[in-house]
Amino acid sequence: MAFPQAFLDELIARNPIEDVVGQYVQLKRSGANYFGLCPFHGEKTASFSVAPNKQMYYCFGCHKGGGVINFIMEIESLSYPDAVRFLAQRVNLEVPDDREYESRYREQERLWALCKDAARFFHDQLKSGDGQPARAYLLRRGLDWNTVSRFGIGFAPDGWRSLADAMEQKGYTRAELLAADLAVSKEKNGRTNFYDKFRNRVIFPLIDIRGNVVGFAGRTLDPDGKPKYINSGETLIFQKRKFLYAMNIVKKSKQGRIILCEGPLDVIACHQFGFDCAVASQGTALTEEQVNIISKYVDQVVMTYDSDQAGQNATQRAIDMFTKAGVKVKILRLHDAKDPDEFLHKFGADPFAVLLQGSENQADYRLLSIQGQYNLTVDEQRVEFSHKAAELISTFSNSVEREIYADRAAKAAGISKDAMLLEVGKAYKKRQYREKRQKEKRDLSPAAAIQPKFREIRYDNLRSARAEENVLAQVLVEPAQFDLAPSLTGESFSVPVLGRAYDALRQRHKDGRTVSLAVLEGFTADEMAHLSAVTGKMDRVAGDDAFRDCVSIIQEEHDKKNQSDSETDLLALQSRLKSKKGYGGK
Hints:
Blueprint: H1 5-14, H2 17-22, E1 28-30, E2 33-36, E3 48-51, E4 56-59, E5 65-66, H3 68-76, H4 80-90, H5 99-127, H6 132-140, H7 145-150, E6 154-156, H8 162-169, H9 174-179, E7 183-188, E8 191-196, E9 201-207, E10 213-220, E11 229-231, E12 244-245, H10 247-250, E13 258-261, H11 264-272, E14 278-281, H12 288-297, E15 300-303, H13 309-324, E16 328-331, H14 340-347, H15 349-357, E17 360-361, H16 362-371, H17 379-393, H18 399-413, H19 417-443, H20 446-450, H21 462-477, H22 496-510, H23 525-535, H24 544-579
Parallel strand pairs: 13-14, 13-15, 15-16
Antiparallel strand pairs: 1-2, 2-3, 3-4, 4-5, 6-9, 7-8, 9-10, 10-11, 12-14, 16-17
């Protein structure tokens, strides 16, 4: 988004990165920089750094990085223009007119307003005479009216254009209804059919963490209707991978944990019975973005996925994701009920609280899952189980934990604890050996060591790339060094992202503006993180001679490439001429 550079300079100046980040992360000063626990991934040792002199942040663990705008984009899940607006509001700075930005933001506002009005329409329909079947369904599911109102549950009539007509009367256009995924447009026999997406369904509004209605989930009332649920698709205001149902309520919970459910009715039942910390991913498998959102609020999650094979696979995958994010995982096993909704309405809140208190940790769950795959009355399968259990237990970092679970596995397999500990020890040594070899391989490969952490950024010419990194880092420390290489441009760089950054910074230097990565536009989050890592390697000017040496390397490697390309083109031309009749032919 093309905001005026003078405005961006003022925005960055009024929002020092250490102050903004400090509202989300507890920072401690160490030398010229600040350090704290990364808000984007779980960790116990601070690897998240903030450099006030460069107005940049970088995490040495997850490799996220950038300026203050990038930080707000990442932590608040905002687009670039919305992050700019967020920071401007923070310091009471007026955002200058920008037609493209204003147009996009107005479109978002219209879709938020449309979805809010649609939610009111659906809720009113639930209270009407036509909504009786939906009210009867909700009553059968045990929902009281306070809960229905709290979650804004509604009803989509069976008519083809009930919602569309009502919204058009309010001034919304067909294009807006399509953009919000509330209507469908299809061509048939030369005619355009325009109709509601949600019909004859109980409607669950999807409300984002800031309280905006961004979409809907509809549960069919037709016993033979398929699919049972339909959800809003991706829109300008709704991204499934970043959405958690009821997170707008859960963020205020004081229970210190989150109950992760599979569907909205499980979540609603939990809240109705007093467990106001339940959420669900909506119409998608659990994503890293959803895990990161949860990790910002709690350090413990209780999973209540189904016990079938699909549920077990989803649970195993989620355990790995939460463990990586530093969130402790417990598994809730329900008895005589298929899900929390059924259990709560069948047995009540107290038994559910007891189950929550006694829920298994992820180690118990994984061990029991392996155990369930084998018939432990058969010797061959006891041996296979022992090997599999030992492999799992060897991944536990705590020696006490390994001993406890080795004892449990030994009892299950009907062998001695010492024998199981021996197997665990062997598996643990093998794992350490593999990890050591992999580390040695990485350490002995300088080419691999220098390669960026992001797949879309690759160094094809390592010699030039190293020089380009140094040049970029040096001009950020001392912009006057631009004057030492007046003819150098980003076109000579072998790494496009480094060349683009160099050109942008060079132009700022020419214009007499602050030379900083923090105000650059047009770079992806991964590109900005890589630039942060590159420039973070240098805090002092290396010297004019060192700078000139790097410039010489860049130009030398660029000339080599041009010469090589020219020779390739010449050979290709010769080949084409030879193939023509009468030129060296037979």
